[in-house]
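Fill in residues.
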């Protein structure tokens, strides 16, 4: 019976096999232990650390986008229980932290903040996709041009020096912040109006 349970039970985080220890079931893959409470293993997600729970939500989000069409994803966002504000904030947050040159880290931070603030995660993830490897270089170049325009400096060209690199970085991130702020405000307004208008129209039907 114990062997049958061992073959059936898997780690809720990584789906790996579990090993029985003296006071817990242990997952060798993700190094998570599930303690015995009155001789019953506690698999509740609440007993898992914050980052492990965040990882679970990210894996679920990845699976959701991989197994649904864009039409189904948009329908899910518009029919979500979240308020129009929560959905719009999620999308705006995803755009804001993606426009600022942070590469993959921006998307991860956006999802983590949205998860902690209870914004709509699929909307946040969709917002991060607006800046991708295909258009990212153009967005970052626009950030740099905007930064140069407002800071009043000169565009740096080769040969590069430490001073010129610092000037480029300052213009890039200053311009990125301005572009990200404007983009996030526009996305918030558009998404809020779309979700609110759609739900209002549905209530009248």
């Amino acid at each position: 019976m114990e062997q049958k349970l061992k073959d059936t039970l898997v780690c809720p985080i990584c789906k790996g096999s579990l090993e029985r220890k003296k006071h817990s079931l242990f997952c060798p893959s993700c190094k998570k232990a599930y303690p015995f409470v009155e001789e019953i293993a506690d698999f509740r997600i609440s007993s898992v650390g914050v980052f492990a729970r965040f990882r679970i939500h990210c894996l679920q989000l990845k699976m959701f986008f991989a197994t649904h069409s864009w039409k189904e994803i948009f329908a899910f966002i518009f029919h979500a229980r979240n308020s129009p504000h929560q959905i719009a904030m999620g999308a705006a947050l995803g755009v804001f932290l993606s426009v600022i040159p942070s590469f993959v880290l921006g998307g991860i931070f956006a999802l983590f903040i949205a998860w902690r603030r209870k914004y709509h995660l699929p909307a946040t993830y969709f917002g991060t996709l607006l800046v991708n490897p295909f258009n990212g270089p153009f967005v970052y170049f626009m950030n740099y041009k905007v930064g140069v325009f407002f800071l009043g400096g000169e565009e740096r060209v080769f040969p590069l020096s430490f001073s010129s690199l610092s000037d480029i970085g300052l213009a890039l991130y200053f311009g990125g912040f301005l572009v990200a702020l404007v983009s996030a405000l526009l996305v918030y307004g558009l998404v809020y109006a779309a979700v609110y208008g759609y739900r209002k129209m549905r209530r009248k039907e």
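The chain has a mean pLDDT of 84.
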